[in-house]
Amino acid sequence: MHTPQIKEKLAKLYEDLQGLSKRISGYPISTDFNYEELYPFLGLPLNNVGDPFEDGTYQVGTHKIEKEVVEFFAELFMAPKDNFWGYVTNGGTEGNLYGLYLARELYPKGIVYFSEDTHYSVSKNINFLNMRHIMIRSQHNGEIDYEDLYESLKIHRDVPAIIFANIGTTMKEGKDDIRKIQMMLTDLRINQKYIHADAALCGGFAMFMNPRPNFNFADGADSIAISGHKFIGSPIPCGVVIAKKNLVQKIARSIGYIGTLDTTITGSRNGFTPLMIWYTLQKLGIDGLKNRYLKAKELADYAEKKMEQEGLTVWRNNGALTLFFPEVPDWIKNKWQIATQGVSHLIVMPGMSKEIIDGVIVDIKQQTKILI
To answer: Does the structure show a pLDDT above 80 at 329?
Structure first.
């Protein structure tokens, strides 16, 4: 293919994708990022092979930056000061896989408990790991049904319990209460236990919610996974997983080939994504993240009020950025890229505008008139 043809094809692709990126309303993707200062790093063979806390023989990577990212979130999630570890992943799915993998290595005969509103990738991860599991009912708001969980735990109280908690379910942003679940485990005298928190969307802002969800290490989590391309914002899918160091050390092994420990899921890892997360965290800090959430929440408040004013049925968890409503037809789903599974939802992420929200509402309202 000649160079002019390549340029023309790329220009057309960029134009199409740029247009589509302005109509994302049902997926948790922030679109307000700018990483121009980092472009020179794309000319380097960045590879964060091995453990970010260990020096290896391959040195063209961003381990030091990655370590700072882990330390930032460890502090944000109230991890034990001298007992945390983590790394930058390819996304929430890998972070959840790591949490489940660590739990399985600690408790090979354990049972995984997760709600029916859990992300579809979790069932896949559990199958990968060949783990015994029980699906628990969910409440209407997406939160786990605690009575069903308690009864299931009670029946299998002689088996180690591995809890997969959702801190923001996919469709409704329901948040499971880890502190409440810990109390159940204590009440049932289940001492062999592991709790992983899937905070893919909400991990970047849950600490700033009022009231704050019970999801962090101080509440009883053993590991937490978040996504970097959702609330923080990134052109490349990525995430962060944080776990207790003493647990990770039980499964670590030394690899002579790379001169470091093998503690992550993949061998070679992206060295550019830690830079992007670090760059955003440096610019925003704790206060900036909080203001980012409050600004998005204000827009979500606007969307909820506008839908109610238009006479549309809408639900929303307290402080959530997700609004869910009866399923919309395919033409609206496709036009506004609205995720649908039982219900449809609108997720108000940084970078979204009132114009997008208004456009979605106009089309849903129009569809309602057609049905009447």
So the answer is: yes
CATH for 38-281 is: 3.40.640.10
- Answer CATH for 3-32+289-371 from 3.30.980.10, 3.10.410.10, 3.40.225.10, 3.90.1150.10: 3.90.1150.10
Pull the structure tokens for residue 157: 């109280």
Residue with tokens 């990655």: 66
| Domain range list for the chain | 3-32+289-371, 38-281
Please give the structure tokens belonging to residue 1.
């293919």
pTM of the model: 0.94
In DSSP terms, which residues pair with 112 in a beta bridge?
Answer: 133, 162
The fraction of the chain above a pLDDT of 70, given in percent, is 95
Please state whether beta strands 239-243 and 223-227 pair in parallel, antiparallel, or not at all (unpaired): antiparallel
Return the HEC string of the chain.
CCHHHHHHHHHHHHHHHHHHHCCCCCCCCCCCCCCHHHHHHHHCCCECCCCCCCCCCCCCCCHHHHHHHHHHHHHHCCCCCCCCEEEEECCHHHHHHHHHHHHHHHCCCCEEEEECCCCHHHHHHHHHHCCEEEEECECCCCCECHHHHHHHHHHCCCCCEEEEEEECCCCCCCECCHHHHHHHHHHCCCCCEEEEEECCCHHHCHHHCCCCCCCCHHHCCCEEEEECHHHHHCCCCCEEEEECHHHHCCCCEEECCCCEEECCCCCCCECCHHHHHHHHHHHHHHHHHHHHHHHHHHHHHHHHHHHHHCCCCCECCCCCCEEEECCCCHHHHHHHCCCEECEEEEECCCCCCHHHHHHHHHHHHHHHHHHC
Would you say the CATH fold of 38-281 matches that of 3-32+289-371? Answer: no
pLDDT category at 261 given cuts 50, 70, 90 is low
Mean pLDDT confidence for 62-71: 97
Q: What is the CA radius of gyration of the chain?
A: 21
At residue 252 the predicted structure's pLDDT band, cuts being 50, 70 and 90, is: low
